[in-house]
Design a protein that fits this description.
elongated, SH3 type barrels, 8 helices, four-stranded antiparallel β-sheet, 359 residues, five-stranded antiparallel β-sheet, alpha+beta
Length: 359
């Protein structure tokens, strides 16, 4: 073994210091590049800039360590071990960077397919991350001279045992993959289960699905539940939906005039209220005879499930105001009372009645 001289040590230190300086410079440059990529609307340049930023510092430091080791003129055996260790570290760092890149790519692709829904699809991203890191670890072990064939066999046997022990967890995993692959539900959709849970889908991970209720609470539902229950998706096949408003009018009113008033109010609501579909037709359908009134439905349109409440609210207020201005008062319940005199004759006696609309 050759003795180390101060000249070699100083050269190695200079090489290592230069590598660190280059790493700092690359970190600053890649940070600016990442910021510049974030200003564009294209998502893939952000991912490429993130990959460069993740690899700039570790690759620079590893190369600096290698050239420093070469400058020290280490023995052949020591240099070979150092090379193997640095190669293994490089493979591991590249695996981490690629895992982040692929996971972000999967998430970006999933969100693009969902029309930009503000939510995370973590199940596919996590699977991709685990697969890439697992392959990277195997390659790293192979580079260190460790035979991975027995390890793969042990993983196969161990995987069977784990699969038997974690049947419920794996069932939730595959159910989540099936749900996303079939696009039954996606983040941002409003769903309702037959068991009563309903809300906006926030996230679908490897075990459960999180939904946000209208009261801003989070409900966590196992993925397997979606495969054995009836589910209603209010965002499929289209996000806009019909709103049914039921009301009644008295027999004495002019139904044609009432229909005109309701249609005018509905069109104004569709134009003015947030969530209304401007080019939709307002439909009025009289559909039943009650004891004292004629029932009908008003069909409106909303762009999204949560908008229906404000639309109903404004529609009922404006309809009530319009009918009052037209002199149509709401109908009241009334009964016909039949009185019998002493001779046994009977005759009807009616309580006062008022005509109009019952909401």
């Amino acid at each position: 073994m050759d003795d180390l001289s101060w000249e070699r040590i100083i050269v190695a230190a200079i090489v290592l210091a230069g590598a660190l300086a280059i790493a700092v410079i690359l970190r600053l440059l890649t940070g600016r590049l990442f910021k510049r990529a974030g200003d564009t609307r294209w998502a893939w340049d952000d991912l490429a800039a993130r990959l460069v930023r993740d690899l700039a510092v570790p690759v620079s430091v590893i190369l600096g360590l290698w050239f420093a080791a070469k400058a020290l003129h280490l023995p052949r055996g020591t240099l070979d071990v150092t090379a193997k260790v640095l190669v293994a570290v490089t493979i591991f760092m590249v695996s981490l960077a690629l895992a982040r890149l692929i996971a972000n790519s999967v998430s970006s692709f999933a969100l693009t397919g969902q029309g930009g829904a503000a939510a995370n699809v973590t199940i596919f991203a996590n699977i991709a991350r685990v697969v890439v890191i697992g392959v990277g670890v195997l390659v790293m072990l192979q580079s260190l001279g460790v035979s991975i064939s027995p390890l793969l066999g042990a993983l196969g046997v161990g995987g069977l045992a784990v699969a038997l022990a974690l049947q419920d967890t794996l069932a939730n995993l595959f159910a989540g993959v099936h749900v996303l692959a079939s696009k039954t539900i996606e983040p941002g959709d409003y769903i309702k289960l037959a068991t009563g849970q309903e809300g906006y889908v926030v996230d679908i991970n490897w075990r459960n699905t999180s939904i946000r209720t209208l009261s801003d609470n989070i409900e966590v539902i196992p993925n397997q539940r979606f495969s054995d229950t009836i589910l209603t998706n209010y965002h499929r096949p289209a996000q806009d939906m019909s709103i049914m408003v039921y009301a009644k009018v008295a027999y004495e009113v002019d139904l044609d005039r009432v229909e005109e008033l309701i249609t005018e109010v509905g069109e104004d609501v569709m134009q003015d209220v947030q969530g209304g579909v401007e080019d939709s037709s307002v439909l009025v359908r009289f559909d039943d005879f009650n004891d004292a009134t004629v029932g009908f439905h008003v069909i409106l349109r909303s762009t999204e499930f949560g908008d229906q409440f404000l639309i109903k609210h404004e529609f009922l207020k404006r309809l009530h105001r319009t009918l009052r201005e037209e002199g149509v008062a709401p109908p009241y319940w009334h009964h016909r009372v039949v009185l019998s005199d002493q001779t046994g004759a009977t005759g009807p006696s009616e309580l006062p009645q008022k005509d109009g609309l019952h909401l």
